[in-house]
Amino acid sequence: MHNRMAFPKKTSRFRFWRGGGATEDHVREVLDTGLFTSRGGELMGWAHQSFAEFLAARYLVEKKVSPENVLKILLHPSGGLVPQLGVVAAWIESLSKQIRDVLIASEPLVLLRGDLIGWGGSDLAALTTSLLTGFKHQTLRDFIPVPTTDGRVWRRSSATFDPADLL
């Protein structure tokens, strides 16, 4: 996914927020790190999409956005996770137990993309049960790579997950 967020290289164009404590020198220092790359002209952007995804998840958790509202952002009205927000969802579950519990029940495959190291035994057991139930009933949905008809190019598919597709 291409990162469309861009930052001006010339920090004089920044409007600093009141009380933020950031100076133009601070912004210049950060923009000169490996976190950002040039987007041409005077534009800078994240060096990797994962930085933006982590910060989006962290922002929602730190601002104490209710789990209901976070789920409205992550889940499509017709059902399932918005594919472009899969990694954001994986980060949020590692930061918020409440959201993790909902995603274990509704979107267990996306949680495999997250950080499971800090999970307790009961969460891991619930995730395992949810995954096994989903496999049994063929209800798991994920955007997984599947071969195209020519067998050479891979695309993303939202079809019901079938482990045989990976063989």
Question: What do you see in this structure?
Answer:
- By secondary structure, the chain is mainly alpha-helical.
- The protein has 2 domains: 7-47, no CATH class; 50-137, no CATH class.
- The protein is 43% helix and 10% strand.
- The chain is built from 7 helices and 5 strands, in the order βαββααααααββ.
- It has helices at residues 24-31, 49-62, 67-74, 86-95, 97-106, 108-111, 121-137; strands spanning 7-8, 36-38, 43-46, 144-147, 154-157.
- The strands form 2 sheets. Strands 1-3-2 form a 3-stranded antiparallel sheet. Strands 4-5 form a two-stranded antiparallel sheet.
- The longest helix has 17 residues, at 121-137.
- The radius of gyration is 19 Å and the shape is elongated.
- It starts with 6 loop residues before the first strand and ends in a 10-residue tail after the last strand.
- Residues 152-159 have low confidence and may be disordered.
Number of strands: 5
* Beta-strand residue percentage: 5-15%
Q: What distance lies between the first and last C-alpha atoms, to the nearest angstrom?
A: 26 Å
| Spatial strand order of the main sheet | 1-3-2
Number of helices: 7
Main sheet characteristics = 3 strands, antiparallel
Instruction: Specify the overall morphology.
Output: elongated
Low-confidence stretches: 152-159
Multimeric status of the protein: single chain
H/E element sequence: EHEEHHHHHHEE
Radius of gyration: 19 Å
The tally of domains stands at 2
Helicity range: 40-55%
Structural class: mainly alpha
What is the mean predicted local confidence, pLDDT?
A: 77
